[in-house]
């Protein structure tokens, strides 16, 4: 850094730390002449900073608000305070406010020295999270935000509810805050499909140093993916519908609700329809396209219960 550049940054820091400075005071602080101070002021004005000056015995310089927001210089304590405040806003329930806070937080923590990052982590309260979860790591959240912004592939360690840890290679698309939780919407490279992960279940993020071209995803599809992820719960009863329908046609018909479906050869699709009860499984099957042949793989006891339930309905229709 040249002496001129370094002096300009120091001058800017002084202007931001005190409301009014006289030219002799600034010259003394910077170790230069008053004429040099005037030249440095002109350089700052050329960079977009609005600096008001007054003449006379009590004259001097002050940094004023301009038409655009210029860069700001922060002390260590100010940077830590802002980072903590941004984490608190990111944990809030206002979706747009949380998204903006996370965007700024990612920019700040990208350049925050490690010693200050440790101070932020020690002082900041944990991010708000759903009951029963182990909390959202702010480091994970900001790493994912950077990957979304920079369009960089990452490998994440993810533990689904009631499951074992998995490693997934993904192309992050967006982070969505809803009700105190954060959801990562991304393209899963190993499954070649869109997936949604709850961020409090992500334990680490490894940048793969590979950039990717963004994939088109309409905002309403992002909302639908998150809605499906929020409504999914561990299943008390497991069932699978095997349809005589190619996987592509099935996904086209069901959209985000086809999540978890897999191809069974070129002409069939296996779709998990587990739910909290056999009654709910039957309700889910009722949404399958009319006229599509399928069979249901179900435990014997659950099969008997469903048969009795459906027989009761048929009897009621014939009365």
UniProtKB/TrEMBL annotation:
SMART domains recorded: HTH_DEOR (SM00420)
Protein name (Swiss-Prot/TrEMBL): YafY family protein
GO molecular function term, any single one: DNA binding
Keyword entries, A-Z: DNA-binding, Transcription, Transcription regulation
Entry keyword annotation includes Glycoprotein: no
Ranges where the HTH deoR-type domain occurs: 4-63
PANTHER family attached to this UniProt entry: PROTEIN PAFB, PTHR34580
């Amino acid at each position: 850094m040249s002496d001129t550049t370094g002096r300009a940054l120091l001058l800017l820091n002084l202007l931001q730390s005190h409301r009014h400075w006289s030219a002799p005071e600034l010259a003394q602080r910077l170790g230069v002449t008053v004429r040099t101070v005037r030249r440095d002021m002109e350089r700052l004005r050329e960079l977009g900073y609005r600096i008001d000056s007054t003449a006379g015995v009590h004259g001097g310089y002050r940094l004023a608000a301009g038409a655009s927001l210029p860069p700001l210089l922060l002390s260590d304590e100010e940077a830590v305070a802002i980072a903590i405040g941004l984490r608190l806003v990111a944990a809030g329930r206002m979706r747009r406010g949380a998204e903006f806070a996370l965007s700024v937080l990612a920019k700040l923590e990208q350049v925050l020295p490690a010693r200050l990052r440790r101070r932020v982590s020690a002082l900041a309260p944990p991010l708000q999270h759903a009951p029963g979860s182990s909390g959202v790591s702010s480091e994970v959240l900001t790493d994912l935000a950077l990957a979304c912004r920079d369009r960089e592939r990452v490998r994440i360690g993810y533990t689904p509810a009631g499951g074992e840890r998995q490693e997934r290679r993904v192309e992050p698309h967006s982070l969505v805050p809803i009700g105190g939780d954060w959801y990562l919407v991304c393209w899963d490279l190993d499954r070649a499909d869109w997936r949604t992960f709850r961020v409090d279940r992500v334990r680490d993020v490894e940048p793969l140093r590979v950039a990717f071209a963004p994939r088109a995803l309409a905002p309403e599809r992002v909302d639908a993916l998150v809605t499906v992820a929020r409504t999914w719960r561990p299943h008390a009863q497991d069932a699978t519908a095997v349809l005589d329908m190619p996987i592509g046609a099935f996904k086209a018909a069901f959209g985000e609700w086809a999540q978890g479906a897999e191809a069974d050869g070129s002409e069939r699709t296996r779709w998990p329809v587990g739910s909290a009860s056999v009654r709910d499984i039957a309700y889910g099957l009722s949404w399958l396209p009319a006229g599509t042949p399928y069979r249901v793989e179900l435990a014997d006891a659950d099969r008997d219960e469903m048969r009795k339930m459906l027989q009761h309905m048929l009897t009621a229709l014939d009365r």
